[in-house]
Amino acid sequence: MNLRPKAVVQIEKVEKWFGRTNALEGITLTVRPGDFMVLLGRNGAGKSTLLRVMARMLKPNSGKVEICGFDVRHDPERVRQRLGFVAHSSYLYRHLTARENLRFFARLYNLENIDQKIQEALGWVGLEQSADRQVLGFSRGMQQRLAIARATLHRPEILLMDEPFSGLDLEAAELLTQWMKSFVSAAKTIVMATHDLEQGLSGVNRWVFLEKGRIEKELTGDFQIIRERYKQFLRERKGELS
Amino acid sequence: MNFLNQVGAILWKDILTEYRTKDALTSMLIFGLLVILMFHFAFEPDSRETEKFGPGLLWMTFIFAGILGMNRAFATERENDSLQGLMLAPVDWSAIYLGKMLANLVFMLLAESVILFCFALFFNFSLMPRWGWMVTITVLGTLGFASVGTILAAVSMNTRMSDVMLPILLLPIALPVVIGAVESTAAILTDPPGESLTFWIKFLVVFNVIFITLPLLLFDFVLEE
């Protein structure tokens, strides 16, 4: 057991098949503490599958995934204790209030000082005034903010985000961008999957282009340059197909 | 302790949701009461007929009402993909099974207590001398049914026509518990209770031990992928 890992995520030669479709083809990737990594690719490129394998929601057919030094196969509960996951779906219960939702997840994570942590989390995402309203009356933006509070209530080391901007209005998207920057500045790690770069992203230090379950490119640099490179990448792939 | 705390959290969440929506209980109760009413008009409710057909009618009502409730068991987990949220928590997935199974058991027992009261009323069946046995048999039979039903509700959740799939999968597997419950109920309707009562009670206990243990071991495979 490695208690002080150099990499927070270590993926080695991971393969994932769905029937006869190879969703991940020998992916090898290392993510270090403080990284803000964006996985880019078209629909079906394998971004969500890779995140779900990292969270041990899917079992890889072969290869090895370690999170904070723990093998996802052998220590799934320890791995999940260190992960937060924000997806397009909020994973919230519509008939529970915001506070009840957070209390429920706090109990699943066996947290201490639950009331204090819930209050802090609600304040963090600006939902104190709506804490005792049922989620079914929340807008998409409010649900996404509560989903972030849910995913980070247990103070995870790594946050996995799957298309977190989809369906958000500009204001909510801007809030989310600011929030992600502050999360990474606290030496925590974000791995985010997205298929479009219309939303401006700051603080990202690694861009990984995926195509057909393979890592095609990894780049670092300014957002505007990456966006141009990504558009070019998509044009090339489109050209190959036609 | 952590495991029990997590089971308790899932049970609390399901009970609170049901208290607010009343989806499962309403459908189970309305269905159960309508069936009892129809049987009341279809059969002459004298004590000999009650002895002969009563146990079967009662458990048929319990089982079909229970299936309606069981179909709702994972419906709340499908909204907003909440089941994924549960699976992401550092929870032994058997705690998810146990929490959901206990919630199903509570809802079924609540509905059954009302249905049983109405059955006694419509079929001139006195509960008082046998209430202890009746409670024991109802709890054992329902526990067995809920334990099998919960895992099969999870299996059928992502199938096409899941509402139809659940009874098709559940009824053959739950047949032994239905037979045990009907036979033991029939045994307590005779005065004094039939000699077979002890056998059928033991049968229900054994069935419950097996069918609570197996899903606890198998639930990981059901949730995975």
Structure description:
The complex is a heterodimer of chains A (242) and B (225). Chain A is α/β, with parallel strands linked by helices. Chain A has a domain at 92-155. In chain A, 35% of the residues lie in helices and 25% in strands. Chain A is built from 7 helices and 10 strands. In chain A, the strands form 2 sheets. A 6-stranded mixed beta sheet of chain A has the order 6-7-8-3-9-10, with helices on both faces. In chain A, helix 3 packs across helix 4 and helix 4 (114-124) packs across helix 5. The model of chain B has no long low-confidence stretch (mean pLDDT 89). Chain B has 9 helices and no strands. With 225 residues, chain B is mainly alpha-helical. Chain B has one domain (2-223). Chain A binds chain B through residues 55, 57-59, 77-78, 80-81, 83, 85, 87, 89-96, 100, 104-105, 107-110, 134, 143, 150, and chain B through 2, 5-6, 8-10, 12-13, 16-17, 20-21, 76, 79-82, 84-92, 224-225.
State the helicity of chain A in percent bands.
25-40%
Q: By helix and strand content of chain A, what is the structural category?
A: alpha/beta
What gyration radius of chain B follows from the Cα positions, in whole Å? 18 Å
Principal-axes geometry of chain A comes out as: globular
- Rg on CA atoms of chain A, Å: 18 Å
How many alpha or pi helices of chain B? 9
Distance between the amino and carboxyl termini of chain A: 49 Å
Distance between the ends of chain B: 28 Å
Number of domains of chain B: 1
Count of DSSP strands of chain B: 0
Residues in β-strands, percent of chain B: under 5%
What string gives the helices and strands of chain A in order?
EEEHEEHEHHHEHEEEH
Extended strand count of chain A = 10
What about the largest sheet of chain A? 6 strands, mixed
Global mean pLDDT of chain A:
87
What's the story with the biggest beta sheet of chain B? none
Question: What's the tally of helices of chain A?
Answer: 7
Oligomer: heterodimer
Low-confidence stretches of chain B: none
Query: What fraction of residues of chain A sit in β-strands?
Result: 25-35%
